[in-house]
Please model this.
Amino acid sequence: MARVVVDVMLKPEILDPQGQAVANALPRLGVTDVSSVRIGRRIEIEFTGEPDLDRAREIADKLLANPVIEDFHIHVVDDAVAEVA
Amino acid sequence: MRIGVVTFPGSLDDGDAARAARIAGADVVRLWHGDSDLHGVDAVVLPGGFSYGDALRCGAIARFAPAMDSIIDAARGGLPVLGICNGFQILCEAHLLPGALTRNQHLHFRNRDQFLRVESTDTAWTNSFTAGQEILIPVKNGEGCYVADERTLDQLEAEGRVIARYVRGNPNGSQRDIAAITNEAGNVVGIMPHPEHAVETLTGPSLDGLGFFTSVLRALAGAPAGANAGGHQ
Model:
């Protein structure tokens, strides 16, 4: 089963206070060489038939992302190809 | 005058909004998110709360409710619409108002009484105030930080569409201290703080919130917008 993955990220110019909070916590883990953290959202869509990138793009544009503050990228992943974590 | 108050799954302040409208002198009609019939109301309030559990983004799902389809059409035709807190978020998601509401910059939920300065009395919802009047109403939000690109912000300012600003402290990091804006026609207003919680001495910090509801009644009665009788202290 193939899935369409939509990655939604805040636009670069939009402040990400959550990412900043995470970045500020990293020194407590002993990590001192990170200059920026930004947090986004990954959404996986399964169609009943073949994955439809155009439909997925429409869904992302209308609902999954807010174009005022967010950008999105779409790609297809095939579960037959094991993801290496 | 009939003011409709919409209830979404997860709305919290629909009861208070209905009560405020009633105290101002309106007949209140409770509207349901799943019903596209607006039952002939003369104005609509989208109340605060957490519609659809704030799933995805605040207001993102509510925007597609059947009631919203009708409200978006009617608002484009001039129907006065006031979005409070989550209602403001819904209006932005529906593109009836520009910009977006994002996580408070300091990441904390803010719940306090907040001073605002009313900057435009030309809207259907603010004509009972005087320009520059300071009012005190509660603010309570986690995602109330208003953002828009610089061009949009400049345009809002130039057209007098920033209708209220936070004064004596910005509770959420909103750009240019923006607390409330309106659309080009002045019939659609989004406000992050809660006027409906400041309509009775027993429970509110003031009666200043009542002015939003009396304003729309005046606008509907045909009084010229901005012809002010002194506002509500």
Remarks:
- The radius of gyration of chain B is 16 Å.
- Chain B is about 20% helix and 25% strand.
- The interface with chain A takes residues 56-57, 60, 64, 92-93, 98-100, 102-107, 147-149, 173 of chain B (CB under 8 Å).
- The longest helix of chain B spans residues 210-221.
